Amino acid sequence: MNCPRCQKSTKVVNSRPLEGGRAVKRRRECLHCSQRFSTYERLSLGDFRVVKRNDSKELYARHKIEAGLRKALEKRPVTEAQFQKLLFDIEADVFSLGKEKISSEQIGRIVLDRLKKTDKVGYLRFASVYRNFRSPQAFAKEIERLEKVGARA
Ligand SMILES: [Zn+2]
Q1: Does residue 148 share a domain with residue 77?
Q2: CA of 9 to the centre of ligand 1 (A)
Q3: Among residues 33, 35, 48, 72, which is most buried (max CB within 10 A)?
Q4: pTM of the model
């Protein structure tokens, strides 16, 4: 990693695990101008392709899942740490499928599965966008189903 100021080589002066060892923060120092800066290392799904409903493909984009999750969990009692863990778990599930491409439906199911265990309101919000409930009845049915699952747990 080169220095952002003078573009010369740098060295790592300190490494610190983050998110319970799921990411690493490295403190670096430029060998030339002594500028200090940080880099982060985390699991990359950059080569993943997502197949959309209309069969078009696009590169996996973490920020899209993150945006959908943020919307679903808006004003919900979920801490930033819980949110980051949720996002990580979802990506780990996607990654563990071991495929080079995945359908947007599969990703949606993974997100719903994880959300269900984290926040039921968030789950319903996400489901209402993802499943595109055709009627209020269909939505009510899903809530009913969810309550049954909750009762069993
Ligand atoms: Zn420098």
Answers
A1: yes
A2: 7
A3: 72
A4: 0.65
Q: Contact at 8 Å (CB) between 130 and 72?
A: no
4-50 pLDDT, tens digit each: 999 999 999 999 988 767 788 999 999 999 999 999 887 776 677 88
| 143 C-alpha to ligand 1 centroid (Å) | 57
User: Are 72 and 112 found together in one domain?
Assistant: yes
Our count of domains for the chain comes to: 2
Q: Which residues surround ligand 1, an ion (CB under 5 A)?
A: 3, 5-6, 8, 30, 32-33, 35
Q: What is the pLDDT of residue 70?
A: 94
Sign of CA dihedral 75, 129, 43, 63: negative
Clarify whether residues 78 and 116 are in a common domain.
Answer: yes
Are residue 85 and residue 147 in the same domain, yes or no? Answer: yes
Which domain covers residue 81, as residue numbers?
Answer: 61-152
Which of 74, 78, 106 is CA-nearest to residue 90?
A: 106
69/125 same-domain check:
yes
Distance 27 CA to ligand 1 centre (A): 14
Based on the fold, state whether residues 93 and 18 are members of the same structural domain. no
